[in-house]
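Per reviewer request, we include the raw input and output of the structure prediction for the construct analysed in the revised manuscript.
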Amino acid sequence: MTVKMKRYILIQWLFLIALLPVLGQEEIDNDEITVVAPYQPTIDDANKINISPRIPDEKLAKPEFNYTSIAKEYKYTSVLEPISAAKIQGESISKLYQNYIKLGAGNYSTPYLEFSANQLRSKKSAFGVNIRHLSSSGKIKDYAYPGSSTSSLDAYGKKFFGKHTFSSGLFIKKKGVHYYGYKPNDFPGQDLSKKDIKQTYTKLGLNAEYRSNYSAGKKINHYIGASYYYLFDKFKTREHELRFNAGLDRKMEFFSFSEEEKLGLEAGFDYYMRSDSLLNHYLGIVKVLPFYTLSFDQYKFKIGVNTNIDADTNSKVHVYPVVRAEIKVVEDYLITYAGITGELKANSFDNLSSENPFIISSIEKRNTNNKISQYGGVKGRITKFLDYNLSFANSTLVNLPLFVNDTVSSLGEGLNNQFTLVYDDVKLTTLLAEFGFHYKDKFNVLILGKYNSYFLDNEDEAWHKPKLEVSLQADYSLQEKIIVKTAFFTRSKMFARDFEVNSQSGDIETIAVELDPVFDLNFGFEYRYSKVLSGFLNLNNVLGQRHEYWYNYPSYRFNFLFGVTYSF
């Protein structure tokens, strides 16, 4: 018998001996048990087993796998459907009409005619002719006959080559006025007819230019041009002008940081031949301007030297600096600029008579020397609809022409109805403000304000030159059928030179006569019946004022012009 079996038999006998007293007891005694002390449980001290579990350091064998690929061929078929080419619709090209005519009439016996004929679109050439006539033969109370007329014929042509364009043109212009700036009742001894006080200016001319059209690369851009006109009036004044101008420029790379550099040269020659009833006068101006421009980041610079040679009886050389700097402070919204410039300007009989047609024929002519002009300003836009430009300029001018009434009139003694010139040296300060509002080609507004401050060396006032000028132009298109336009112009008072006899000394003294401010309000209406036919109505000087732009020359009051336009 094994040890384990002996131990098992011993435990059974001990268990039976322990049960004998219980099995032999027949009943249970109901004795009371009294507990004399509270039960106090105890816990035996625990012994910590200081054995830390750990993973045996056994290296795991990397299993190896074997792969096999089963080659299987998949057969498929595809059917290709043809793809139609995409159609790109280009921008629609508006139809052009070869001819245009505008006919109108108004009060003060005012006929109006305008006719244009132009070649249609062509990649090789362009040609056009324009004819225009406007005249009036009304009356102004108490004054002499004020009739006037303007007629012109212009023709132009262009030939487009691969990299060049040749353009030319010719014109005939005729302007007629009457020296109506006097009251016939104040001169009963003067018996002047319309023909006696009439003046006409006739101008014939032509021009031509050859210009390159290079848009990229380092080729030398260039142009050369010439023009000529012949002007004569009723009183035997003649003027010829021959002008040549040329220029060239080329892109350079002097600096690695620059975006665009350009080196160029501009040159020109103006030659005038004038003759009147008193003398002959020959005048020439030679201009040479080398320049350099540089652009990088938000900066633009230009420097140059403008050399002008006054080729009069005593030739004189004038040198003017040309400097301009421009900084884009905020792209498109705020751009500042400043610069210095100067030039020699010819006061031709053509320019003077265009500004004031009531001048005498034998007028003294000098060149105006703009010795130096300092300017600066800011420009940009406030929103995508509103543009602005604010600037100033300080100029030093030598021989600025000023119009004054001629006291020795060839038409009649004491009439003072013609103008001559006085020249003075002037320091001129100009402030300019421009605002333009544009909205979807439907509504456009342009406001211009200009303030001039004159400091003269000899004259008491800047004769016939206002200090303040403000203009407003606006147009509104209602579904491209009805067009409404308005124009407003105002200028401050001006001064005209006159003379009076001092009652005490008997001397003749110069006085300044004040000319009233001008407020000129105009409206225009156009109804487009179709793309080719429309009607228009213009209302001018709606306030009915008698404006006096030149001393003793009042304007018409309210006047209107209506008519039709037709394209074919």
